[in-house]
Amino acid sequence: KIVFNSITYYNYTKKLILKNKINSYVNYPRRYYKGYNSIKNKCLNTNLEVSGYNWRLASNCLHMIDLFLFLNNSKSIKLYKNNFEEIYKSKRDGYFDIYGSMIFYDENHNKLSLIDNINSFNINGHQIKIYNKKIIYIIYENKNMCLSIDNKNINKNYFNLDLQSNLSKKYLEDILTNNI
Questions:
Q1: Could you report the per-residue pLDDT of 86-126, keeping only the tens digit for each?
Q2: Alpha helix ranges (H) inside 24-118
Q3: CA distances, 31 to each of 12, 16, 176 (Å)
């Protein structure tokens, strides 16, 4: 989610954090999901593509950027190209989102593609494709399903998405032990 609704509020908060020497943390739960950790351990130098319809690109792109950075142990990404097609009212009253696409690369030339397409045939949200030269994972989070495709096999597996409430203990442990 967008952490701040304006640059003014962001700058004000940043000033308070620095002045008072406060650590801050934004909640990105995908790096805690067992399924993504398993993929990270099996699949190095990955590209990631998120595509679908009405998955709220502006509201959720930071989550996908964090997942990409996590999977690749990347330190930074650079926006290569964006194409914003249409602004629409979000499900939250008074907020808006966008249809369009964004392409990023990390320092190792791994690619992140984010596509929220008004003309998509995938009307069930979005799919997350994680791939390199050896394997492809296609994840349908809303169905708790993952397809893995390699040179020999196509496998369909259950993809566990822990509830936010089940992750709170792990977040707290990581914050208190400075693992984040």
A1: 888 887 788 888 999 999 999 999 999 999 987 766 656 78
A2: 34-42, 57-72
A3: 29, 28, 17
